[in-house]
Each structure stands twice: as C-alpha cells, then as structure tokens.
Amino acid sequence: MRKPMVGLMMAGLLVAGLVAVATPVTPALAQGSFIPPGQADPVGLITSGAVLPFLGEGLAAGGSMSFLELYAPASSANVHMFLFDSACVRQGPSLDVELTPNDIALFRIDNIAGGPSRGLVTAAQQDAQGFTLLPWRGSQLVAARTLWASSANNFVRVIDPIALATANEILLSSVNEGGWSPLRTGAAFFAPLETGGLHTTIYFVCPNSNIQRGSVLSGGGGAFDPRNGFPVIFPRFELAGSNTPLRIRVYDDDEDLLRDVSSTCNCLTIRPVTEIDPVYASAAEAPDGTYTEVEGHTRSATAAVCSATVIESLTTPDTPNSGNACPCGLPSGAVFGSGCTGQFQQTTAAIPGGGPFSFVAYRAITVPSIDVFGRVPGASRCDLRGCTGSEFDAADGR
To answer: Which residues lie closer than 8 Å to 132 by C-beta, 6 or more apart?
Structure first.
C-alpha cells in the first residue's frame, strides 16, 4: 500500500511547496561485455547524436519558451541541428553551432524563423555540404538539455535529452544496434487524484521514421540515417504519419487494476491524465492517486484496400505495378503470370505489422505556484509485466 507515501508527497507539495525533479533512471546493463548504445546516462557526455524535445508558445500565449543548453567539455565540437514539429515533420532551417573546448552555448529554439514552436531537435555534426547529419566521433563529446521556461506559470523545467550513445559506452558492435537512452518500450508513473487545481500531465516523446528509418540492410533513412554510421534504434520507430500505439494500465494505491486502455502518441504528444481516462479524477475509485504502466504497444498488419471497379494499365505486361498490391483485374478472373493485362487500382496502401515501439515520457504535476516536472522511470514492457526466461521478447528493447 502507498497511502503513507501519498500523504507525505501531497503534504510536501501543498504545504512546504517543495519542487522535485525526477532523477533519470539508468536501465540495467545488457549481459556480456558489450554495452549496446543507449544503455548509459543520457545526461552525461553524448557521442554520435542527440534528440532534444522542446516546447514553446511565445510570449503572447503565456510566456512559454525553450532554450537549448550545449556544452563541449573535452574538445571542439560541431553541433548541427534539424528542427521537427510535434508530428516529426521537418520544418525551418538547419542550425549550426561551433563549440570550442570548455565552451557553452545557450539559445532560444522555439522562435526560429520558419521553424516550429514545439517538437524535436536532432543534433549531431554536419557533412561537408551542411545538408546531412553525421555522428560525433572520438573526442567530440557534447552535453545537452532543454530549459523550458514559463513566466506566466512560474516554472523552469529541465527536459533530459535522448542520447544515441554516451562516452562511457562501447559505441558500435557488429550489428550497431541498441536503445537510444532513455527510449524504452515501457514507462511508469504516479499521479495524485485530479482535484481542484491539482493536475498531472504526461508528455510522450514517440519519434517516428522521419527521425530514423530502418537499418543499413533495409535501406535506412531519416535524420539519423544508419547508413551514415548512427546506431540503429531497436525496437524500430513507427512509420511517419502513423500514431504509435500505447497500452496503459492504471492501478489504485492498493495495487488493484482499475483500467486497461489503449492510447496513442505521435512524436511529441501532450496528454493530461484525464484525457487518458476519467479514472484519474475518480475519488470513488482512486482517492489516494494512481500508479500507471505504459507500454509501446504492437500494431496489427493492415491489408491494402483495392477498388472493385477501377482498373489501371500495367507498366509491364503480366507484372504488378510498383506499389500496387491488388490482384489482376483484366481479363476477369486472370492472375499475374497467366496473361494479365490490367490491375485493380490500389486506394490505400498496406501497412505492415510492427512494434513494440520505443518512447520516453515526462510528467508534470502542478498546483497553483508549484510545479513538479521530470522524466518518468523507463523499462522494457516485458520487465513491467514481470517476464522471465523464455517469456522475454528480445524485441522489447530491454
């Protein structure tokens, strides 16, 4: 039971006004001598590259602004950045910062001309032409984070970065794969009862294939293209334009399951907990608050949708057109390879099955004049379920 803990926490929030910032949770190290990329501390020195969430609405909309804080403690480092909006669609110009040894840069990121007011920044070094990101290597070690400030709401929130790899790791292996720290397939958080001016909001960061697509063998792509040497995120990201599926289990403070619901996120998604489910505000079901587990869920495959009447000509006789998974339409009843001359038009492309998907979450608990913000603990979804032995799915990204 967690009633004593809940009472102490609420007393601290409402009486003493203490502001707590969540301490990053370092995932367990992989077995064996190799440490996959992303297993170490994301707020340490970063190599390869980094993803930085940012949020801002501008002074006219409440004074919320985001600043990037960059350090180069060891040697000179080039920090080249692409801006993505909250759906991971690239916008605005690329940004370039040159850091000398023991240098620091601090600049506002949510008001770049042509850029988004909230979303993700991908940071690494640039190629010779300045159009492509390449990994930081060797002594190019960078520390980075986002400072999210609001004068209207009287807070400065520190948003931990997502580190592709860190300096105390063995960066590459024969497969060059691992979880970018702290991206995982699971997360957990506590939320006090929603009442009066007390509110909990979860900020999900679920990058998609615009940030990285596939692997070297599958063709690669995205800002952190693995063909350029970036470690491959594993499990993979959701396809650009698709929502990352989430499974969310909510418990009361006596460990009784209250809800098992589905939700989604897309790149950078803000979810007040009452938007996830009204149970967070139920004094009858959860008077002392709730404990929640979130999984980056799986997505079932969806077959292509074909027109039943519209037939398109074949580019090559008796061969399906590129990108069209529909059957032969002419002559009626024919199949490819036996005299097909036309193909039913594809109206919606097939979507392959996928998942579980990687994400990270941050939590804000607010009451008037008090703000508690930080990253929530992460894990593999199988660890949250208590999987052992053969139950563990290697795709869960432990």
So the answer is: 126, 225, 228
Length, in residues, of the chain? 398
Which residue type, as a one-letter code, is found at position 91? Q
Q: Which residues are 16's β-sheet partners?
A: none
Query: Cα torsion at 337, 338, 342, 343 (round to 10°)?
Result: -50
Q: Are 262 and 300 in contact (CB under 8 A)?
A: no
Question: What is the C-alpha to C-alpha distance for residues 46 and 25, in angstroms, rounded to an integer?
Answer: 16
CA atoms within 13 A on the CB side of 290: 31
- By the 10 Å C-beta count (0-12 exposed, 13-18 middle, 19+ buried), 131 is classed as exposed
Domain positions in the chain are 42-171, 179-321+353-382
Phi and psi (nearest 5°) for 396? -75, -10
pLDDT in tens, the chain (398 residues): 444 444 434 444 443 333 332 333 333 333 333 445 555 677 889 989 999 999 997 555 567 899 999 999 989 999 999 999 999 999 999 999 999 999 999 999 999 999 999 999 999 999 988 889 999 988 899 999 999 999 888 899 999 999 998 876 544 443 344 578 888 889 999 999 999 899 999 999 999 999 999 776 677 899 999 999 998 887 889 889 889 999 999 999 999 999 999 999 999 999 999 999 999 999 999 999 999 999 987 877 778 899 999 999 999 989 999 889 999 999 988 999 889 999 999 998 877 777 788 899 999 999 988 899 999 998 888 888 877 655 455 555 44
User: What are the Cα distances from residue 76, in Å, to 97, 104, 156?
Assistant: 11, 11, 29
Residue 359, beta-bridge partner list: 184
CA atoms within 13 A on the CB side of 156: 5
In contact, 359 and 183? CB cutoff 8 Å: yes
Give the torsion through C-alpha atoms of 174, 177, 178, 181, to 10 deg. Answer: 110
| Strand partners of residue 254 | none
CB 64 within 8 A of CB 153: yes
- Is CATH 3.40.50.1970 correct for 42-171? no
360: amino acid identity, one letter: V
Phi, psi of 227 (to 5 degrees): -70, -15
